Amino acid sequence: MRISAAFLAAALAGTAHAIPASALLHRAGPTLPSKDSFYFPTGDLSSHQPGAILQQRPPPAAVAAFGLVAAKLNRTQQLLYRTSDAHGRPIATVATILIPHNADLGKLLSYQIAVDAASIDCAPSYALQQGSERGPLAGTLLSQAEFLLIEAALEQGWAVVVPDFQGPQSSYLANTLAGYATLDGIRAALASTATTGIRSDARVAMWGYSGGSLASQWAAELQPSYAPELHVAGAAVGGTVPDVASVIKAINGQPLAGFIPTGVLGLVSQYPEAAPLVDDALRPEAKQLFYSPLKQCLAANAAGFLYKDVLGMFKDRDFLLKNEVLVRISQENSLGKTTPKIPLFWYKSTMDEVSPVGDSDRLVDKYCDEGADVEYVRDVLSNHGSYAVIGAPLAFSWLKKVMNGKDDVPRKGCSKKTQLSGVLDSTQFEVLPKLIADALLDLLGKDVGPI
Questions:
Q1: Collapsing DSSP states into helix, strand and coil, what is residue 276?
Q2: Domain annotation for the chain: domains and CATH numbers
Q3: Please, which pLDDT band fits residue 135 given cuts at 50, 70 and 90?
Q4: Helix residue ranges per DSSP H, 68-146
Q5: What span, in angstroms and rounded, lies between the C-alpha atoms of 53 and 191?
């Protein structure tokens, strides 16, 4: 991975001087979602079906790589659509539709970005726009970096929908909501033919890593009951996070301890009965820091809680793991409630420091015992962050076959493989050079899409 990541970073950095100056001119940024009325519809949402488009518009600013360089797309559109919160009540959220040049509008990828934040001002629909504020420590930069993987799909000619799956309150870890919003984002995209050209019968796939995998997997588990009319050809999920409580134990006091307060605050937005319990349980001197994720994004949260003993911020350090209300909420938002009918490509580091690989192993076994179609690949020499890079070419190669219906992919049944390192996989050499070349050419002003 270090080879792939370093090469990609160096290649992109090396082109910075060649980016046209006009692409880097200062522009007033788009309005923050928290201050943008588009995100907050009026009227009775219950009169609309899940996935119904309530409003739509072109994004206020161009979609841009790293928030700086406008991508030359054929068309972009923001859809405000009806979905459901964690309790099935109607809410609205936004999806961004990206249409490349020379598009095959019979293919649609739903890409779930790992937002991992408790502020709506970190939403993908905002973060992907040119001139968007990144907040402290370039807070939305990681969301913007995922646009490089989205570009890989666009260069295949696929239409892409990127949902704000955490909803209007940025309810991180409220995973039922995330699944609903992902499925309804697909519904909305398929219903947007008049403005986007996407065919209503387009072949659909999903992709997400880490927080994006949560939304994708929950969508897969919920699809048979919530959106049975949707046919999703396959979903690629990596850096999977099956169990919320297990993550708390694994990351407390570690580099990514900031996921703990962010997740608690995200869940509290959907489970208000937990709010006074959390507040009363916190040490008074810890409250200001603990609530800081409400006003910042992923990178700032990671920095602010680096190696922090978050459990020690509570009067009882076992509070999050033993309080009956918190335990119930954690269990409600952990995977394994049902078995997906959507075929899965599942990629996971055996050294994942965020979510222990054993949790994924057990859930894969459960899915397989219950008849799911799963291709499970484990990587030995990576960790949670590095496998986001290493595993991407493998996932993308699988998605291409799914979209094109080739090589008997997805396969029926289950397969499991553990490899030393995905860096050595031949797929890297088949996929990565084109991915890098396309990203560089797009940065330099090429029309985004297949030539």
A1: helix
A2: 2-243+334-443 (3.40.50.1820), 244-332 (1.10.260.130)
A3: low
A4: 124-127, 141-145
A5: 8
Q: In whole angstroms, what separates CA 123 from the centre of its chain?
A: 10
pLDDT mean across residues, the chain: 92
Residues 6+ apart with CB under 8 A from 94: 33, 38, 39, 78, 79, 80, 81, 123, 125, 163, 164
Q: What would the two tokens of residue 289 be?
A: 């820091």
Per the rule left: phi > 0, alpha: psi between -120 and 50, beta: everything else, 405 is: left
pLDDT band at 436 (very low <50, low <70, confident <90, very high): confident
Q: Is 26 an annotated catalytic residue?
A: no
Pick the catalytic residue from 143, 213, 379, 384.
384
Average pLDDT over residues 328-344: 98
Of the residues 85, 104, 184, 352, which is catalytic? Answer: 352
Express each pLDDT in 38-94 by its tens digit: 999 988 999 999 999 999 999 999 999 877 889 999 999 999 999 999 999 999 999
Between CA 194 and CA 248 the distance in angstroms is 45
Give backbone dihedrals phi and psi of 379, rounded to 5 degrees, phi first. Answer: -120, 130
Is there a catalytic annotation at residue 87? Answer: no
SS3 318: coil
Helix axis angle for 2-14 and 384-404, nearest 10°, is 80
CA atoms 53, 57, 58, 61: torsion sign: negative
Max Cα-Cα span within the chain: 60
pTM recorded for the entire structure:
0.93
Question: 384 an active-site residue?
Answer: yes
Three-class HEC string of 209-245: ECHHHHHHHHHHHHHHHHCCCCCEEEEEEECCCCCHH
Pairing of strands 104-112, 64-65: unpaired
Q: Is the pLDDT of residue 380 over 60?
A: yes
Averaged pLDDT for residues 312-334: 98
Nearest Cα to Cα of residue 1 among 299, 393, 377, 357: 393
Beta bridge partner(s), residue 237: 208, 346
- Catalytic one among 4, 132, 171, 210? 210
Contact 215, 165 (CB under 8 A): yes
Angle between helices 147-154 and 384-404 (to 10 degrees): 20
Q: Are 418 and 380 in contact (CB under 8 A)?
A: yes
pLDDT at 319 over 70: yes
Asked if residue 142 lies in contact with residue 389, where contact means CB atoms within 8 angstroms, the answer is: no
